[in-house]
Protein backbone atom coordinates (compact mmCIF):
# COMPACT_ATOMS: atom_id res chain seq x y z
CA UNK A 1 0.00 0.00 0.00
CA UNK A 2 1.38 3.40 -0.98
CA UNK A 3 0.15 6.95 -0.47
CA UNK A 4 1.30 9.90 -2.57
CA UNK A 5 -0.75 12.99 -1.73
CA UNK A 6 -4.35 12.54 -2.90
CA UNK A 7 -3.45 9.40 -4.89
CA UNK A 8 -3.37 6.01 -3.16
CA UNK A 9 -2.84 2.50 -4.46
CA UNK A 10 -2.47 -1.10 -3.37
CA UNK A 11 -2.02 -4.49 -5.07
CA UNK A 12 -4.05 -7.65 -4.48
CA UNK A 13 -3.04 -11.08 -5.77
CA UNK A 14 -5.58 -13.89 -6.02
CA UNK A 15 -5.01 -17.43 -7.27
CA UNK A 16 -7.15 -20.32 -8.44
CA UNK A 17 -6.52 -23.78 -9.77
CA UNK A 18 -5.98 -24.02 -13.50
CA UNK A 19 -9.34 -25.01 -15.06
CA UNK A 20 -9.51 -28.56 -16.38
CA UNK A 21 -10.58 -29.67 -19.81
CA UNK A 22 -14.23 -30.28 -18.89
CA UNK A 23 -14.48 -26.89 -17.18
CA UNK A 24 -13.08 -25.08 -20.20
CA UNK A 25 -15.39 -27.09 -22.46
CA UNK A 26 -18.37 -26.04 -20.34
CA UNK A 27 -17.36 -22.36 -20.57
CA UNK A 28 -16.94 -22.68 -24.33
CA UNK A 29 -20.43 -24.20 -24.65
CA UNK A 30 -21.89 -21.16 -22.87
CA UNK A 31 -19.94 -18.89 -25.22
CA UNK A 32 -21.37 -20.77 -28.21
CA UNK A 33 -24.89 -19.89 -27.09
CA UNK A 34 -23.95 -16.20 -26.78
CA UNK A 35 -22.27 -16.42 -30.18
CA UNK A 36 -25.40 -17.89 -31.77
CA UNK A 37 -27.52 -15.03 -30.43
CA UNK A 38 -24.99 -12.46 -31.71
CA UNK A 39 -24.83 -14.24 -35.09
CA UNK A 40 -28.63 -14.23 -35.56
CA UNK A 41 -28.93 -10.64 -34.33
CA UNK A 42 -26.41 -9.48 -36.94
CA UNK A 43 -28.67 -10.69 -39.78
CA UNK A 44 -31.61 -8.70 -38.41
CA UNK A 45 -29.48 -5.59 -37.91
CA UNK A 46 -27.93 -5.70 -41.38
CA UNK A 47 -31.18 -6.47 -43.20
CA UNK A 48 -33.36 -3.86 -41.48
CA UNK A 49 -30.62 -1.22 -41.73
CA UNK A 50 -30.63 -1.38 -45.53
CA UNK A 51 -34.40 -0.96 -45.71
CA UNK A 52 -34.22 1.95 -43.25
CA UNK A 53 -31.42 3.65 -45.19
CA UNK A 54 -33.18 3.41 -48.54
CA UNK A 55 -36.52 4.46 -47.07
CA UNK A 56 -34.91 7.50 -45.42
CA UNK A 57 -33.14 8.49 -48.64
CA UNK A 58 -36.41 8.21 -50.55
CA UNK A 59 -38.20 10.33 -47.94
CA UNK A 60 -35.52 13.01 -48.12
CA UNK A 61 -35.80 13.16 -51.92
CA UNK A 62 -39.57 13.44 -51.57
CA UNK A 63 -39.19 16.21 -49.01
CA UNK A 64 -36.80 18.22 -51.18
CA UNK A 65 -39.22 18.04 -54.13
CA UNK A 66 -42.14 19.29 -52.01
CA UNK A 67 -40.58 21.80 -49.61
CA UNK A 68 -41.80 25.40 -49.82
CA UNK A 69 -39.31 28.15 -48.80
CA UNK A 70 -41.00 30.92 -46.80
CA UNK A 71 -40.16 34.48 -47.78
CA UNK A 72 -41.31 35.96 -44.47
CA UNK A 73 -41.56 34.47 -41.00
CA UNK A 74 -43.34 37.31 -39.18
CA UNK A 75 -46.73 36.42 -40.66
CA UNK A 76 -48.43 33.04 -41.06
CA UNK A 77 -49.82 32.36 -44.55
CA UNK A 78 -52.81 30.01 -44.75
CA UNK A 79 -51.76 29.02 -48.28
CA UNK A 80 -49.04 26.79 -46.81
CA UNK A 81 -51.30 25.01 -44.31
CA UNK A 82 -50.32 21.33 -44.12
CA UNK A 83 -47.35 21.75 -46.45
CA UNK A 84 -43.66 21.09 -45.80
CA UNK A 85 -42.01 24.48 -45.30
CA UNK A 86 -38.47 25.78 -44.97
CA UNK A 87 -37.59 28.85 -42.93
CA UNK A 88 -34.66 30.42 -41.10
CA UNK A 89 -34.56 33.00 -38.35
CA UNK A 90 -33.57 33.93 -34.82
CA UNK A 91 -34.85 32.00 -31.81
CA UNK A 92 -37.16 33.75 -29.37
CA UNK A 93 -38.76 32.76 -26.06
CA UNK A 94 -41.48 34.45 -24.03
CA UNK A 95 -39.72 34.40 -20.65
CA UNK A 96 -36.13 34.02 -19.44
CA UNK A 97 -34.95 30.86 -17.71
CA UNK A 98 -33.59 31.40 -14.23
CA UNK A 99 -32.08 29.70 -11.20
CA UNK A 100 -33.05 31.67 -8.09
CA UNK A 101 -30.66 29.70 -5.88
CA UNK A 102 -27.69 31.31 -7.64
CA UNK A 103 -29.26 34.53 -8.86
CA UNK A 104 -28.87 33.64 -12.54
CA UNK A 105 -31.23 34.24 -15.50
CA UNK A 106 -30.86 34.09 -19.27
CA UNK A 107 -33.03 34.26 -22.39
CA UNK A 108 -32.35 30.83 -23.86
CA UNK A 109 -34.17 27.69 -24.98
CA UNK A 110 -32.39 25.54 -22.37
CA UNK A 111 -30.48 26.20 -19.17
CA UNK A 112 -28.53 23.38 -17.53
CA UNK A 113 -27.19 23.38 -13.98
CA UNK A 114 -24.31 20.92 -13.67
CA UNK A 115 -23.32 19.91 -10.15
CA UNK A 116 -20.08 18.03 -9.45
CA UNK A 117 -18.81 16.58 -6.18
CA UNK A 118 -15.20 16.02 -5.17
CA UNK A 119 -14.96 12.26 -4.65
CA UNK A 120 -12.71 9.26 -4.43
CA UNK A 121 -12.53 7.25 -7.66
CA UNK A 122 -11.16 3.70 -7.92
CA UNK A 123 -9.28 2.37 -10.96
CA UNK A 124 -8.31 -1.24 -11.62
CA UNK A 125 -5.45 -2.64 -13.67
CA UNK A 126 -5.30 -6.46 -13.79
CA UNK A 127 -3.02 -9.03 -15.36
CA UNK A 128 -3.06 -12.82 -15.21
CA UNK A 129 -0.16 -15.26 -15.24
CA UNK A 130 0.45 -18.93 -14.56
CA UNK A 131 2.65 -20.03 -11.65
CA UNK A 132 3.07 -23.48 -10.03
CA UNK A 133 0.08 -24.89 -11.89
CA UNK A 134 -2.21 -22.06 -10.75
CA UNK A 135 -3.74 -19.08 -12.50
CA UNK A 136 -2.84 -15.96 -10.56
CA UNK A 137 -4.44 -12.58 -11.01
CA UNK A 138 -2.61 -9.44 -9.92
CA UNK A 139 -4.87 -6.41 -9.56
CA UNK A 140 -3.57 -2.92 -8.89
CA UNK A 141 -6.15 -0.63 -7.29
CA UNK A 142 -5.52 3.09 -7.58
CA UNK A 143 -7.53 5.75 -5.75
CA UNK A 144 -7.64 9.38 -6.77
CA UNK A 145 -9.84 12.36 -5.91
CA UNK A 146 -11.72 13.92 -8.83
CA UNK A 147 -14.72 16.09 -9.61
CA UNK A 148 -17.62 13.84 -10.73
CA UNK A 149 -21.16 14.66 -11.87
CA UNK A 150 -22.53 11.37 -10.54
CA UNK A 151 -22.23 9.96 -7.03
CA UNK A 152 -19.49 7.31 -6.92
CA UNK A 153 -20.55 4.44 -4.64
CA UNK A 154 -17.51 3.79 -2.46
CA UNK A 155 -19.15 0.66 -1.03
CA UNK A 156 -18.11 -1.13 -4.22
CA UNK A 157 -14.44 -0.23 -3.70
CA UNK A 158 -11.99 -2.98 -2.89
CA UNK A 159 -10.91 -0.92 0.12
CA UNK A 160 -13.48 1.61 1.32
CA UNK A 161 -11.63 2.55 4.49
CA UNK A 162 -9.97 5.90 3.84
CA UNK A 163 -11.87 6.34 0.53
CA UNK A 164 -15.46 6.88 1.65
CA UNK A 165 -17.72 9.13 -0.43
CA UNK A 166 -21.00 10.82 0.60
CA UNK A 167 -24.11 8.92 -0.48
CA UNK A 168 -25.82 11.94 -2.12
CA UNK A 169 -25.29 15.52 -3.26
CA UNK A 170 -26.79 18.41 -1.33
CA UNK A 171 -27.48 20.27 -4.62
CA UNK A 172 -28.97 18.54 -7.68
CA UNK A 173 -28.35 19.02 -11.39
CA UNK A 174 -31.26 19.96 -13.63
CA UNK A 175 -32.12 21.22 -17.12
CA UNK A 176 -34.81 23.86 -17.61
CA UNK A 177 -36.53 24.09 -21.03
CA UNK A 178 -38.53 27.07 -22.23
CA UNK A 179 -42.22 26.12 -22.69
CA UNK A 180 -42.63 28.31 -25.79
CA UNK A 181 -39.91 28.56 -28.46
CA UNK A 182 -40.51 30.48 -31.68
CA UNK A 183 -38.84 31.41 -34.93
CA UNK A 184 -40.62 34.55 -36.06
CA UNK A 185 -44.35 33.86 -35.64
CA UNK A 186 -43.94 30.07 -35.75
CA UNK A 187 -43.92 27.90 -32.61
CA UNK A 188 -41.52 24.95 -32.62
CA UNK A 189 -42.75 21.46 -31.70
CA UNK A 190 -41.18 19.53 -28.81
CA UNK A 191 -39.27 17.37 -31.30
CA UNK A 192 -37.67 20.45 -32.86
CA UNK A 193 -36.85 21.94 -29.45
CA UNK A 194 -35.15 18.66 -28.48
CA UNK A 195 -32.75 19.16 -31.39
CA UNK A 196 -31.43 22.38 -29.85
CA UNK A 197 -28.68 20.77 -27.79
CA UNK A 198 -25.50 22.68 -28.58
CA UNK A 199 -24.71 23.58 -24.97
CA UNK A 200 -22.13 26.25 -24.17
CA UNK A 201 -20.75 27.07 -20.74
CA UNK A 202 -22.10 30.26 -19.26
CA UNK A 203 -19.58 32.74 -17.94
CA UNK A 204 -20.19 33.70 -14.29
CA UNK A 205 -17.71 36.57 -14.19
CA UNK A 206 -20.49 39.18 -13.94
CA UNK A 207 -22.29 37.53 -11.02
CA UNK A 208 -21.82 37.98 -7.29
CA UNK A 209 -21.54 35.21 -4.69
CA UNK A 210 -25.18 34.21 -4.01
CA UNK A 211 -24.64 32.99 -0.40
CA UNK A 212 -22.09 33.31 2.36
CA UNK A 213 -21.11 29.63 2.06
CA UNK A 214 -20.75 29.81 -1.75
CA UNK A 215 -17.67 31.20 -3.48
CA UNK A 216 -17.39 32.04 -7.18
CA UNK A 217 -14.06 31.21 -8.77
CA UNK A 218 -13.81 31.41 -12.54
CA UNK A 219 -16.97 29.93 -14.08
CA UNK A 220 -17.86 27.82 -11.03
CA UNK A 221 -19.73 28.33 -7.78
CA UNK A 222 -17.95 26.36 -5.03
CA UNK A 223 -19.55 24.96 -1.89
CA UNK A 224 -16.15 24.68 -0.22
CA UNK A 225 -14.13 26.37 2.47
CA UNK A 226 -11.13 26.50 0.17
CA UNK A 227 -11.86 25.99 -3.57
CA UNK A 228 -8.12 25.74 -4.29
CA UNK A 229 -7.78 22.78 -1.90
CA UNK A 230 -11.14 21.00 -2.02
CA UNK A 231 -12.07 18.13 0.28
CA UNK A 232 -14.13 15.02 -0.43
CA UNK A 233 -17.80 16.03 -0.38
CA UNK A 234 -17.27 19.60 -1.62
CA UNK A 235 -19.46 20.76 -4.53
CA UNK A 236 -18.93 22.96 -7.55
CA UNK A 237 -21.71 24.23 -9.81
CA UNK A 238 -21.48 25.37 -13.42
CA UNK A 239 -24.14 26.46 -15.92
CA UNK A 240 -24.65 25.79 -19.62
CA UNK A 241 -27.12 27.21 -22.12
CA UNK A 242 -28.37 26.15 -25.54
CA UNK A 243 -30.23 28.31 -28.04
CA UNK A 244 -29.70 31.92 -27.05
CA UNK A 245 -33.13 33.49 -27.66
CA UNK A 246 -32.57 37.19 -27.08
CA UNK A 247 -29.87 39.81 -27.17
CA UNK A 248 -27.36 39.49 -24.34
CA UNK A 249 -24.74 42.21 -23.74
CA UNK A 250 -22.12 39.57 -22.92
CA UNK A 251 -23.13 36.80 -25.37
CA UNK A 252 -24.39 38.74 -28.37
CA UNK A 253 -27.46 38.33 -30.56
CA UNK A 254 -29.96 35.47 -30.51
CA UNK A 255 -28.96 32.23 -32.25
CA UNK A 256 -30.29 31.63 -35.77
CA UNK A 257 -31.67 28.25 -36.85
CA UNK A 258 -33.01 26.69 -40.03
CA UNK A 259 -36.17 24.56 -39.81
CA UNK A 260 -37.91 22.18 -42.20
CA UNK A 261 -41.27 20.92 -40.91
CA UNK A 262 -45.02 20.89 -41.63
CA UNK A 263 -47.00 24.06 -41.06
CA UNK A 264 -50.09 23.58 -38.91
CA UNK A 265 -51.55 26.97 -38.11
CA UNK A 266 -48.73 28.88 -36.44
CA UNK A 267 -46.99 25.67 -35.34
CA UNK A 268 -44.18 23.69 -36.98
CA UNK A 269 -44.87 19.97 -36.50
CA UNK A 270 -43.62 16.64 -37.97
CA UNK A 271 -44.28 15.95 -41.66
CA UNK A 272 -45.15 12.34 -42.61
CA UNK A 273 -43.81 11.26 -46.01
CA UNK A 274 -45.35 8.69 -48.35
CA UNK A 275 -42.44 6.36 -47.55
CA UNK A 276 -43.48 6.26 -43.89
CA UNK A 277 -40.74 8.47 -42.44
CA UNK A 278 -41.12 11.67 -40.43
CA UNK A 279 -39.42 14.93 -41.37
CA UNK A 280 -38.80 17.60 -38.73
CA UNK A 281 -35.34 19.03 -39.25
CA UNK A 282 -33.47 21.76 -37.40
CA UNK A 283 -29.91 23.00 -37.95
CA UNK A 284 -28.05 25.97 -36.47
CA UNK A 285 -27.35 28.84 -38.85
CA UNK A 286 -29.00 30.10 -42.02
CA UNK A 287 -29.10 27.28 -44.59
CA UNK A 288 -30.89 26.83 -47.89
CA UNK A 289 -33.31 23.92 -48.36
CA UNK A 290 -30.77 22.14 -50.59
CA UNK A 291 -28.06 22.45 -47.91
CA UNK A 292 -30.42 21.09 -45.24
CA UNK A 293 -31.33 17.98 -47.23
CA UNK A 294 -27.71 17.46 -48.25
CA UNK A 295 -26.74 17.38 -44.57
CA UNK A 296 -29.55 14.92 -43.87
CA UNK A 297 -28.33 12.63 -46.67
CA UNK A 298 -24.82 12.76 -45.22
CA UNK A 299 -26.15 11.92 -41.76
CA UNK A 300 -28.13 9.01 -43.19
CA UNK A 301 -25.02 7.69 -44.97
CA UNK A 302 -22.90 7.89 -41.80
CA UNK A 303 -25.58 6.11 -39.75
CA UNK A 304 -25.93 3.41 -42.41
CA UNK A 305 -22.20 2.64 -42.47
CA UNK A 306 -22.00 2.69 -38.67
CA UNK A 307 -24.79 0.09 -38.43
CA UNK A 308 -23.19 -1.98 -41.20
CA UNK A 309 -19.94 -2.05 -39.25
CA UNK A 310 -21.83 -2.97 -36.06
CA UNK A 311 -23.65 -5.78 -37.89
CA UNK A 312 -20.42 -7.15 -39.36
CA UNK A 313 -18.72 -7.01 -35.95
CA UNK A 314 -21.63 -8.82 -34.28
CA UNK A 315 -21.41 -11.54 -36.94
CA UNK A 316 -17.61 -11.82 -36.62
CA UNK A 317 -17.83 -12.14 -32.82
CA UNK A 318 -20.67 -14.64 -33.11
CA UNK A 319 -18.76 -16.90 -35.50
CA UNK A 320 -15.66 -16.61 -33.31
CA UNK A 321 -17.57 -17.75 -30.23
CA UNK A 322 -19.37 -20.57 -32.03
CA UNK A 323 -16.11 -22.01 -33.42
CA UNK A 324 -14.18 -21.53 -30.17
CA UNK A 325 -14.82 -25.13 -29.20
CA UNK A 326 -12.34 -26.27 -31.87
CA UNK A 327 -9.63 -24.19 -30.20
CA UNK A 328 -10.53 -25.70 -26.81
CA UNK A 329 -10.17 -29.25 -28.16
CA UNK A 330 -6.56 -28.64 -29.26
CA UNK A 331 -5.64 -26.38 -26.33
CA UNK A 332 -3.16 -28.98 -25.00
CA UNK A 333 -0.88 -28.68 -28.05
CA UNK A 334 0.75 -25.21 -28.15
CA UNK A 335 1.89 -25.20 -31.81
CA UNK A 336 -1.37 -26.65 -33.13
CA UNK A 337 -3.34 -24.33 -30.85
CA UNK A 338 -1.74 -21.21 -32.31
CA UNK A 339 -2.26 -22.35 -35.90
CA UNK A 340 -5.88 -23.24 -35.24
CA UNK A 341 -6.45 -19.87 -33.57
CA UNK A 342 -5.15 -18.00 -36.64
CA UNK A 343 -7.21 -20.23 -38.94
CA UNK A 344 -10.41 -19.68 -36.98
CA UNK A 345 -9.91 -15.90 -36.99
CA UNK A 346 -9.39 -15.93 -40.76
CA UNK A 347 -12.44 -18.13 -41.24
CA UNK A 348 -14.58 -15.84 -39.07
CA UNK A 349 -13.37 -12.77 -41.00
CA UNK A 350 -14.13 -14.26 -44.42
CA UNK A 351 -17.45 -15.80 -43.38
CA UNK A 352 -18.62 -12.60 -41.68
CA UNK A 353 -17.66 -10.50 -44.72
CA UNK A 354 -19.42 -12.81 -47.19
CA UNK A 355 -22.57 -13.27 -45.13
CA UNK A 356 -22.77 -9.53 -44.37
CA UNK A 357 -22.55 -8.62 -48.06
CA UNK A 358 -25.11 -11.32 -48.91
CA UNK A 359 -27.52 -10.01 -46.26
CA UNK A 360 -27.08 -6.44 -47.50
CA UNK A 361 -27.80 -7.55 -51.07
CA UNK A 362 -31.04 -9.24 -49.94
CA UNK A 363 -32.03 -6.01 -48.20
CA UNK A 364 -31.44 -4.07 -51.43
CA UNK A 365 -33.27 -6.61 -53.64
CA UNK A 366 -36.71 -5.13 -52.95
CA UNK A 367 -35.56 -1.60 -53.82
CA UNK A 368 -32.70 -1.86 -56.34
CA UNK A 369 -32.38 -5.38 -57.81
CA UNK A 370 -29.34 -4.64 -60.02
CA UNK A 371 -27.31 -3.26 -57.11
CA UNK A 372 -28.43 -6.23 -55.02
CA UNK A 373 -27.10 -8.63 -57.66
CA UNK A 374 -23.74 -6.81 -57.78
CA UNK A 375 -23.36 -6.88 -53.98
CA UNK A 376 -24.36 -10.55 -53.99
CA UNK A 377 -21.52 -11.29 -56.41
CA UNK A 378 -19.11 -9.33 -54.18
CA UNK A 379 -20.05 -11.59 -51.28
CA UNK A 380 -18.28 -14.45 -53.04
CA UNK A 381 -14.96 -12.55 -53.24
CA UNK A 382 -13.76 -13.27 -49.65
CA UNK A 383 -14.41 -17.00 -50.17
CA UNK A 384 -12.54 -17.02 -53.49
CA UNK A 385 -9.59 -15.20 -51.91
CA UNK A 386 -9.52 -17.64 -49.00
CA UNK A 387 -9.60 -20.67 -51.32
CA UNK A 388 -6.87 -19.23 -53.55
CA UNK A 389 -4.52 -19.10 -50.54
CA UNK A 390 -4.98 -22.81 -49.81
CA UNK A 391 -2.02 -24.71 -51.36
CA UNK A 392 -3.00 -27.39 -53.92
CA UNK A 393 -2.74 -31.03 -52.79
CA UNK A 394 0.31 -32.88 -53.98
CA UNK A 395 -0.43 -35.85 -56.24
CA UNK A 396 1.08 -39.09 -55.03
UniProtKB/TrEMBL annotation:
GO terms for cellular component: endoplasmic reticulum membrane; nuclear inner membrane. The chain crosses the membrane at residues 29-47, 305-326, 371-390. It comes from the Eukaryota. Keywords: Endoplasmic reticulum, Membrane, Nucleus, Transmembrane, Transmembrane helix. One of its GO terms (biological process) is lipid metabolic process. It is found in: Endomembrane system; Endoplasmic reticulum membrane; Nucleus envelope. InterPro entries: TMEM43_fam (IPR012430). It is a multi-pass membrane protein. Belongs to the TMEM43 family. This is TMM43 protein. It comes from Crypturellus soui. The gene is Tmem43.
